[in-house]
Design a protein that fits this description.
Elements: E1 3-5, E2 13-18, E3 22-25, E4 28-30, E5 39-44, E6 48-51, E7 54-56, E8 64-70, E9 74-77, E10 87-90, E11 97-103, E12 107-110, E13 113-116, E14 122-128, E15 132-142, E16 149-155, E17 160-168, E18 172-177, E19 187-189, E20 193-195, E21 198-202, E22 214-219, E23 224-226, E24 230-234, E25 241-251, E26 257-268
Parallel strand pairs: 1-4, 2-5, 3-6, 4-7, 5-8, 6-9, 7-10, 8-11, 9-12, 10-13, 11-14, 12-15, 13-15, 14-16, 15-17, 16-18, 17-19, 17-20, 18-21, 19-22, 20-23, 21-24
Antiparallel strand pairs: 22-26, 25-26
C-alpha cells in the first residue's frame, strides 16, 4: 500500500522516521484529503525505501508545509505508481504551500523525472549539502512550464547531481554556494541542458582568485540552449559585490560536449549587470 502524511484533518502534524531496514510502498503522498495548513515530515537516516512515486502537496488544500530530510540511506523512486507520469513531484496539486527536500547524505535515485514545482501555487526547494541525486532516465525540471516556483540549491563540492537532462524554466532558480576553495561540483547532464530563470551565486565572504574557473553544468552529448534571465551574486561583506563572467563553452575533444562555467571573479559596484556570453 501507500503512505499518506498526514492523512486527514486541517492543522495536523505527521512524521515518518526511517532509521534502517527496508520499506516498499506504492507511493508516498505528503498532504492527504482535508489537510489544510497541515505539516508532514519524513526523515530518512538509514535503510532502503522503494516507492513507486513521491508526491509533495497532494490533497488540494492550501497552507501545507511538507518536508523530506535525507541524511543517509537509499531512496529509490521506481515510477510504478502511475505509468510514465510519476517520480518525485514537488508541488503536486497546485496548492499554496512550501515543499522542501533537504539532502545532506544518502542517495536519492529517481527512475523517471523530478519536478521541482509541478504546478502553480506552491514553493518547491531541493537543497543539497551532501549525498547523491540521480535522475537516470528522464528530466530534472526546476520550476514549471506554467510558472510554478522551483529552486535547486547546491552547496560546495560534496553533493553529487547526475541527470539524464536538465531543464530550468523562467520561474526556476539555481542557487550555488561555492566551497572554501571556490568550487562547486558541477551538475552532470547526460544529454541536454535548457536554461532560463535565475542563477544565484553565493560566496559567503570567500573571494576566489581572478583566474579561478568554476564549472556549473556539464552536458555530455548535446549542447545547452537558452540563458539565465537574471544572475545574482551574494557576498556577505558590505560594500561592493562579487561578480564573474558566465560562459557557454563547447568542447570537441575528446568528445563533443558543453559546459557552463564561471571565471574572471572580481568585485564590482552594486547594481552592475553581468551578461551571459
Amino acid at each position: 500500500g501507500g503512505v499518506i502524511l498526514p492523512y486527514d484533518g486541517g492543522g495536523k502534524y505527521s512524521r515518518w522516521n526511517m532509521l534502517g531496514g527496508t520499506a516498499n510502498v506504492a507511493a508516498v503522498s505528503m498532504g492527504g484529503p482535508g489537510t489544510a495548513a497541515s505539516t508532514g515530515e519524513w526523515n530518512i537516516a538509514g535503510g532502503t525505501v522503494v516507492a513507486g512515486a513521491v508526491r509533495m502537496g497532494t490533497g488540494g488544500m492550501s497552507g501545507q508545509k511538507m518536508t523530506i530530510n535525507q541524511s543517509g540511506g537509499y531512496l529509490t523512486i521506481t515510477n510504478t505508481a502511475n505509468g510514465n507520469y510519476d517520480g518525485l513531484l514537488m508541488g503536486w496539486a497546485g496548492v499554496d504551500g512550501d515543499f522542501t527536500f533537504n539532502q545532506s547524505g544518502g542517495t536519492n535515485d529517481i527512475k523517471l523525472w523530478a519536478l521541482l514545482g509541478r504546478t502553480v501555487g506552491g514553493r518547491s526547494t531541493y537543497r543539497m549539502t551532501g549525498g547523491a541525486l540521480l535522475v537516470t532516465n528522464n528530466w530534472l525540471y526546476v520550476g514549471g512550464s506554467g510558472g510554478a516556483t522551483g529552486t535547486l540549491e547546491i552547496a560546495g563540492t560534496s553533493p553529487s547531481v547526475n541527470v539524464w537532462s536538465y531543464q530550468q524554466y523562467a520561474s526556476g532558480t539555481l542557487k550555488l554556494t561555492l566551497g572554501p576553495d571556490g568550487g562547486i561540483r558541477p551538475i552532470h547532464s547526460e544529454i541536454y541542458g535548457f536554461l532560463a530563470g535565475t542563477l544565484e551565486i553565493h560566496t559567503d565572504g570567500f573571494r576566489p582568485e581572478p583566474n579561478t574557473v568554476v564549472t556549473i553544468l556539464n552536458c555530455n552529448v548535446n549542447c545547452m540552449s537558452g540563458e539565465f534571465s537574471q544572475i545574482n551574486y551574494v557576498w556577505s561583506k558590505a560594500g561592493d559585490v562579487m561578480s564573474a563572467d558566465v560562459h557557454y563553452k563547447v568542447y570537441a575533444s575528446p568528445w563533443t560536449h558543453c559546459a557552463l562555467t564561471l571565471d574572471h571573479f572580481r568585485l564590482v559596484p552594486k547594481g552592475t549587470v553581468i551578461a551571459v556570453r
